[in-house]
Each structure stands twice: as structure tokens, then as C-alpha cells.
Amino acid sequence: MNIYLRLLSELKPHWKLLAGSLGFSVVMAIMEMVPAALTRPLIDEAIYGKNEQLLWQLSLALLVALVVRTVCHYTRMIFTGKLAHKVLYQVRTQLYEHLQKLSLSFYGSKRTGQIMSRVTNDVAVFEQFIVEGIRESLINGLRVVIIFGILFSANPKLTLLTLIPTIPLIWATRAFQKRIGASYRTMRRRLADMNSILSDTIGGIRVVQIFGQEEYEAQKFRAKSREFAAAGNSTQFLQSLFFPSVALAFGVGQVIVWLVGGREVLDGRLSPGELVMFSGYVAQFYAPVQTLAQSANLYANTSASAERIYEILDTQPDIRSKEEAKPIPQMHGKIEMENVQFGYDSGEPALENINLTVEPGQMIGLVGPSGSGKSTLVQLISRFYDAKSGAVKIDGHDIRDLDLKDLRSHISVVPQEPYLFHGTVRDNIAYGRPDASFEEVLSAAQSANAHDFIMKMPDAYDTHVGERGTKLSGGQRQRIAIARAILDDPKILILDEATSAVDTESEVLIQGALENLMHNRTTLAIPHRLSTVKNADKLVVLEAGKIVEEGTHAQLMEREDGLYRRLVEMQTQIGKEEN
Predict the structure, then answer these.
(1) What is the pLDDT at residue 40?
(2) Res 210: pLDDT
(3) 350: enclosing H helix or E strand
(4) What DSSP element (H or E) covers 326?
(5) CA atoms in the 13 A half-sphere facing the CB of 563
(6) What CA dihedral angle connects 477, 478, 482 and 488, to 10 degrees?
(7) Residue of 119, 176, 445, 503 with fewest CB within 10 Å of its CB?
(8) What is the full DSSP assignment across 119-159?
(9) What per-residue confidence (pLDDT) applies to 111?
(10) Which residue(s) pair with 467 in the sheet?
């Protein structure tokens, strides 16, 4: 579908506002033609004819036309403003909601700043298109047709002469629109790059400052700013060539009208009033033609932004529910992986021939060296990715046949670095259950060993945690994340190195919280310290994407050349050296 047709389809739900805006614009355009229409009788009949009564009548008519035009202008702006804000709200929320549904693979290929630029900057361009583009195109097109009819009926010869400047203008406009469109696309990309650097730097400002890389980041930003400025200069250069040329062409047209029309007045074939009236209409004819030519700039800018927006809206999530997908009637928490193969876009296999069964309520430890596939395995269970072959099943159901939202409602993850949202402690604990009562939030915090430190904060549970929880320590953030998982009450729990970023004292409190959390739940734990999973019902050891060992801690420690035993001995030796 043509990009402009898609843009116009966004207006369909608000057709009443659009009709009101265009209706008042039409009346306004008609009122703007009244002064030129009254010029001939004003000069030839009222002034030269010395008819004072007619002078008063025509002056009153001009005044009425001016008042009506002003009222229509005001009302049209109200309608157009409401229309623009409604459409911007509609497109921006539609884009944001669609982003929530896209798979992790999409976010792996896009930078945060680039996505933000499309939601904010690109959508904002729509406002000018709605406020000016649509109205100006329709109304000015109507003006051109009506005024041309009036001119042609008044003086065909002069009318045809006024068209001379429009012939090269049509070719110039097409060439300009093509080149300016490419220039605007470049500007959009450069702006997105700037936003990406800004997002990265602000998000990682502690790292920037601790390594003293302020100047390095500033240089990167300056480089992108220069690229954006260069793209802007290119756009400005094209505009500076095109717009004055349009004005020149129409100025030449006016000269032709006065030259030819003036000779006809001298020869007595045209009255002075008729020439002034004709000249006024010519000015009104050229004005909308010039505006339509200049609209090429706005349309090119809008097209560049719309392409970037619809690129996202047309992107379908890799992971989504089937139409016939159904929720699990009653979740027990049994997990089965049958001959699972998986690889990322690089083509290298991340998991090979994975066969694993976890019974309801079991606690399984996933261990292995870095890059062995532990985190990938648990992401398949949450269905952030789908297996390339084989099947992941929960309670005997292939998870690809289950309703995705229902599936994830039974799974909670406590990650290595928990993400807290800007808001209060209570908001973050109740994130998965916004309708939870304060008593439920309190109980979850107590089970997570978080209640005591929360109560010491200035506003207790109403204390704002800062962006990403920056006002809290690592251990405090982790316990709030655990409280969030406890309140969510999942059947399946995934712990991804949940104690890796905390001190020893915090780890003791977190381990106690995790024991409360794991009770009567199927748990898959990726440990930071192997000692934290030695009491697991089963340990699964991965290496290079394959399961190489399974068993309890005692069974695996009996294998003299086993990978698990070697990892335990290495970690024990490191612990001794640290002490």
C-alpha cells in the first residue's frame, strides 16, 4: 500500500474532525477570493463611477468576508489541532504497544536510541503532515481549479500566459521531491544514531565516569552531530535552490500579466479595474500552486519518517501464540526437553540434542563454564526463543501450542541484574500483579527478607527507587526482585545467577529469601557459586551446548575426571586464595 494511503487510513476513525477541518478550510478559501472579485466594481463602478453608496456596500461586503474568514480560520485550527493530537496519540501508542509484542531477536538487532527516535521524532513529523499537508493539498488544489476557471472565463489569452512558469516547475518539483526524500532519510538515520549514543551514555554514565571516558564519548557524539549537521546542510541546500526558484518563476509570470495586460488597457481592450482584478486572481492562483510545489518538502519528510514507523509496525514477532492456542487448565510445572536444537543468527549451535526432564516441585541446578548454553536453555522454557528442532514441553504440552501470555504468567525469573522501574518500592514489587493488596505486598517483602531495609527508607514502601533502582544497593534490588517473584506466585521459577552481584552478607539474606521462593515450585537455578546448588534434586552439567553430566552433587563428585568435580575444585581453590 502506498505510504500516503496508509497515513490517510490513520485519519479514518476521526473523519468527523477531518470533515470539520476541511469544511471550514473550504469556506475560508472562498472568503479569500472575495476581495479580488470585488476589485473591479470597486475601482470601475464605485471609485471611477463616483458611487458612494456602492462604495459603502462593497466595503461592508469586504468586512463581512474578513470576519467570516477569521471565524473559519479559528474554528479550523481547533478542529485540526484536535485531529493531529488524536492521530499522534493513536500512532504513538500503536507503535509502543506493538514494540511490547516483538521478540527478543528484534531488540538484539536494534539499538534503544534508534527505537526511541522512531516513537518520538518520527511520529512528531505526522503532526505537520496532518495540520498542513492534507489541508493544504486539498484546499490549494481546489483553489487552483476554481481560480483557473475564473481567470479563463475572464481572459483566456492572459490565463494561458500565466501557465508558462508552471511547466518547468512540474519537472523541478518531481526532481526536488526525489532528492529531498533521500536527504531526509539520511537525516532520520543520523538523528537515530545520536539518540543511540545519548541513550547508551546516560544509561552507563557510571562506567563512563569511572573509566574517565567522558571526552571519548563526547567525541563520538560530536562525530554523529557533525554527520547530522552535514545531512541537514545538504537538505537546506536543496531547499535554498528550490524555493527561491519557485518564487522567481511566479514573479516572471506576474511580469508577463502586467506587460501583456497593460498593453491591452492601453489599447482599450481591458479596463484598469479588470486588469487589477485579473492580477489579484493571478496572485491567488500562483500562491496555492507555489504552496503545492513547496509541499513536496513536507511530503518527502513525512514519507521518510512514515517508512521508519511502518517498518516496525510491519515487523511480526518471531514468537507469538497460534490462533488456536489455549491456556493450560491447571499448571503443575513438569518440564520436558526432547532432542532440542537451537542456534542464534550467527549459525553456531548454542544447544545440541538436549534431553531433560524436570518433575513438578524439583529443584534443578544448571552448571557449566561460561558460554555452555545455560541461559539459552532457560530462555527456551520462557519461550523468548523457539527451538530450531525438537520440543520443549510443560505438563505434556508443546509450549508452541500454548497461549504465550498464559504460559509466561506461570513463570518468574530472578535475573543476575534485576531491572527495577522508575517508581515506588511497592510499584516494583507489585509489577506482575498491580491489583495486589498492600498486605500481599508486605508479605512478599517479608518472605524476601526485604521488609526491614524497606522500613528504614524515608517513605518505606512509597519510596521512589530511582531509574533502574539506582537509589538501592545491588542486594536490595535483588531482594525486591525476589519479592516480586514471590508475589507473582509462579509454578516455574528460574534463577539466573541471582547472587552474583552482591556481597556475602546480602547473599546470606538472599539465599534465605530464595529458599522461601523455591518452596513447592519447579526451579531451575543457574548458580554463581556452586555451593548454593549442592542440595539440588539434580544437577545438569552443560559444556559447549550439550548435557555432559547429570546427577546429584554426591554422585557427580565421585567422578574423578568429571567436569562438575573440576569446576567445584577450581571454585574451592579460588575461595581459599581469596581468604
Answers:
(1) 72
(2) 59
(3) strand 349-358
(4) none
(5) 18
(6) 50
(7) 503
(8) IIIIHHHHHHIIIIIIHHHHHHHHHHHHHHHHHHHH-HHHH
(9) 67
(10) none
Q: Phi first, then psi: what are they for 168, rounded to 5°?
A: -70, -25
Report CA-CA distances (Å) from 156 to 152, 163, 308: 4, 11, 47
Are 355 and 547 within 8 A, CB to CB?
yes
Name which of 490, 342, 345, 338 is nearest 399 in CA terms: 338
pLDDT digits (tens, 9 = 90+) for 136-180: 777 777 777 777 777 777 777 777 777 777 777 777 777 766 777
Say how far apart CA 425 and CA 74 lie, in whole Å: 48
Question: Strands 349-358 and 335-343: what pairing?
Answer: antiparallel
One-letter amino acid at 277 equals: M
Would you say 60 and 40 are in contact if contact means Cβ atoms under 8 Å apart?
no
Q: Please, which pLDDT band fits residue 230 given cuts at 50, 70 and 90? A: confident
CA nearest neighbour of 87 among 17, 148, 170 = 17
Give dist(CA 258, CA 278) in Å, integer.
10
Q: Check pLDDT > 60 for residue 505.
A: no
State how far the Cα of 11 lies from the Cα of 13, in Å rounded to an integer: 6
Pure H helices in 314-369: none
CA distances from 146 to 19, 254, 258, 319, 325 (A): 20, 19, 22, 55, 58
**Helix segments in 204-271, DSSP class H:** 205-210, 214-266
Pairing of strands 397-398, 389-394: antiparallel
288 contacts 143 by C-beta, under 8 angstroms: yes
On whether the CB atoms of residues 260 and 164 are closer than 8 A, the answer is no
Residue 26 identity (one-letter amino acid)? V
| pLDDT at residue 506, as a whole number | 59
Ramachandran angles phi, psi of 135, nearest 5°: -60, -45
The one-character DSSP state at 322 is: -
* Statement: the pTM of the whole predicted model exceeds 0.85: no
Residue 152 has, within 13 A of its CA and on its CB side, a CA count of 8
| Among 222, 228, 221, CA closest to 188 | 228
